[in-house]
């Protein structure tokens, strides 16, 4: 296995410069579990599990890694994929989960269950990715809206319902690809409830029955927007982010009739690739 050959670089036996003869395997294996788990956290779960064959020292260490990064393609059967994630999260129910990144194909009820589990365990980085646009993406549970430990949120093919309350004091990065919102209020509450938000990427997100899509943030530094969908026509996008340094706007399908950008004073770079559906009185303007 190519991964094991690469990882084995840590274990190549070679004499120390002082000639003591101590090998790298002993030095690495002698590290405390907590440090080894931090090293393994940088790898995909598929590769982490492979380290269990290196020696007895590593056999069960993968169970204590505070993160999961797994694709359904990593396992032959989808039911095996679901079962593995369930068992991994169940090995140590008290373990804080720093990262959860799953890529799935079928169904979403189990994804909702996993999200609820890791939110309780103070997840910092949450990535939920559906492979195919045609499937019904996961309905993201309301528990995410009040996950105080969350730092990054990446969703692809998902639905965000209207929250009653949003409090995300540590969230800095949001990336949404083909995500559905019940209405604009759900999105506005997500942004306003993230006081430290620095980066926002929106790709082909959709709403029902809105005319104006607002992005308002005092902390936002980077905004990327690519093709917004709305059931209604002539969508207006209004951006109010006084600290914004980088702005990328792209819309080639003419859903947007105008962009309103307030306060351009902090902008360093702007990338625009837009085809406007213009009529009388419609224009790009800044305030």
TrEMBL record:
Residues 25-61 form the F-box domain. Pfam families: F-box, LRR_At5g56370. InterPro entries: F-box-like_dom_sf (IPR036047), F-box_AtFBL13-like (IPR053781), F-box_dom (IPR001810), FBL60-like (IPR055294), LRR_dom_sf (IPR032675), LRR_FXL15/At3g58940/PEG3-like (IPR055411). It comes from the Eukaryota. This is F-box domain-containing protein. It comes from Microthlaspi erraticum.
């Amino acid at each position: 296995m190519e991964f094991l050959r690469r990882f084995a670089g840590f274990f190549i036996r070679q004499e120390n410069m002082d000639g003591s003869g101590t090998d790298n395997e002993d030095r690495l294996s002698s590290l405390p579990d907590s440090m080894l788990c931090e090293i393994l956290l940088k790898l995909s779960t598929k590769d982490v599990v492979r380290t269990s064959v290196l020696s007895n020292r590593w056999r069960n260490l993968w169970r204590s890694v505070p993160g999961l990064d797994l694709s359904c393609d990593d396992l032959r059967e989808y039911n095996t994929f679901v079962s593995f994630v369930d068992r991994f999260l169940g090995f140590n129910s008290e373990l804080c989960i720093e990262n959860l990144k799953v890529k799935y194909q079928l169904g979403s009820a189990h994804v909702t269950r996993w999200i609820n589990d890791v939110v309780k365990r103070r997840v910092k980085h949450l990535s939920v990715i559906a492979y195919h646009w045609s499937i019904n993406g996961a309905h993201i549970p309301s528990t995410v809206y009040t996950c105080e430990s969350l730092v990054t949120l990446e969703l692809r093919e998902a639905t965000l319902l209207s929250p009653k309350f949003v409090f995300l004091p540590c969230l800095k990065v949001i990336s949404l690809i083909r995500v559905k919102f019940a209405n604009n209020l759900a999105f506005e509450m997500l942004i306003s409830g993230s006081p430290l938000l620095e980066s926002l990427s929106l790709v082909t997100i959709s709403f029902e029955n809105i005319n104006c899509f607002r992005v308002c943030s005092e902390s936002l530094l980077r905004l990327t927007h690519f093709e917004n969908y709305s059931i209604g026509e002539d969508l207006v996008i209004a951006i109010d982010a006084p600290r914004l340094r980088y702005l990328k706007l792209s819309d080639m399908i003419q859903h947007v009739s105008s962009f309103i950008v307030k306060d351009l004073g902090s902008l360093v770079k702007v990338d625009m690739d837009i085809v406007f559906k213009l009529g009388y009185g419609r224009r790009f303007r800044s305030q």
